[in-house]
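Re: the multi-chain job from yesterday

Posting the exact lines I submitted so nobody has to dig through the queue logs.
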Amino acid sequence: MRPLIDIEHVTFSYPQENGQGIEVLHDITLQIPAGEFVAVLGHNGSGKSTIAKHMNAILLPMGGKVYFSGLDTAEEENLLPIRRQIGMVFQNPDNQIVSTIVEEDVAFALENLGIAPEKIRERVDEALRAVDMYHYRLHAPHQLSGGQKQRIAIAGVLAMHPRCIVLDEPTAMLDPKGRQEVMRVLHELHRQYHTTVVLITHFMEEAVQAERVVVMDDGKILLDDTPRAVFVQIDRLKAVGLDVPQVTELAAVLRAAGVNIPAALLTEDECVAALTAALEETDGNHTHA
Amino acid sequence: MLKDITIGQYFPGTSVIHRLDPRMKIVLTIVYVVLLFLVENLAGFVLSVVFVLAAYLIARIPVKMIAKSIKPILPILLFTMLLNLFFVRGTVIWQWGVLEITREGVRLSVLMVIRILCLIAGTSLLTYTTSPMTLTDGIERLLKPLGKVHFPVHELAMMMTIALRFIPTLVEETEKIMAAQKARGADMETGSLIHRAKALVPILIPLFLSAFRRAEELALAMECRCYHGGKGRTRMKQMHLAPRDLWALLLTAAALAAVIVCNIFFGSLYG
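And the result, structure tokens for all chains:
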């Protein structure tokens, strides 16, 4: 079966004033099947936002091809069919909310698509409930917290019933509480509606929760695997200026010091379990001796 | 401090007037303004004052709000009054040098003041009882026929909506920049007028830069959400005329008719 997002040998450079562009994507090939939760990691300038903008034809590849559910993004007439199936959420929640009333903002995409008024009402209410913001439907955006605004932005995209949501560092401007709210909503959507989620982030804790992690560096894909397989490669990640989750790092340090625990630890719970096991083991050894 | 700025002067409420269709309210306000300019005699003036006061009572807007909306035009009001007072010819009742006040002058200036007061009170009632967003929607739908002659109705309404949406955001941003510049030792409160105007430059430049960046990001986000102009667009909220809208229209039309009848039967104060 064809993947939902199919990026084939894409190169891209932003035009410069002197006519010579700086290439930010070098021959990228990436396939994302429908229903997957993918995190894209990379430090600033690695090309992770640029690749996201290729997925819904905001940017067009200079070399290679991008297909969304079989539609070529370079074809003008595919623009609307692609964009109604792929929702995009950006970093700054303030700069993507159009209307002065929450529910009207959620309705914005549906109004653009020319959907019948009763149907819009239905879908707006459904989307607001999905992100747990139904009670705030008549509020003005500036009365909401950052996390709440970002959930409204997600609801605005959800109302389109997209097959895929691409989020470009959606939690970068939020406080820890707002980050948790947004991540909880994303996982809920993935589980309930099997929406494909592409999460661009530089928070390791968020990437750990994905099914697959793609690490980008300098316009190339460096690693592409499960979170566990990616984060054990501590040295490679650090070499490109990325951190690993604190837990994974702790495990590595302990292993180096001779403690017998697995290397691929991702969450605090796993770490606690592994450490308890290791302690019991040493305890057992002592009593036997 | 800047947070206290309210956009428009909307007074939330649930009165009949609040619930009137915004299109009808705009039309009725225009009819009332026409009515004010048709009035030619005392009966008509009494009627127009009673009409607007009754509307304030029904809308439960405190009448002292009229005073508030009149404040900014007080100089114009005074100027028109004095002009009428001293320059209308007729029976002289008071004289001092070249200045003279006539009976007709007094009468005309009083009537002129009443007319302007009613004008302000009537149009303010529209903004007191209609939220800026609803007003924008109403204007968009009223102007829709103009779209046929390529008047950019949808674009205008969209611009108004976005402006309303970003006022609080930019106000907040201005406060942040002011605080940041003050923390760096900028002095914005003392000195001559020119000095203070110059002190605004380091606030305006970052504000403009950020506004442009926001505009770019917003345009991108709108495109991602399938925005492609007003063509083929539907609206979630539909406007339907209710019986109360027709009653309001009927009442206003009756007032207009009464004014015209008064003009025919009671003659004109303007001779």
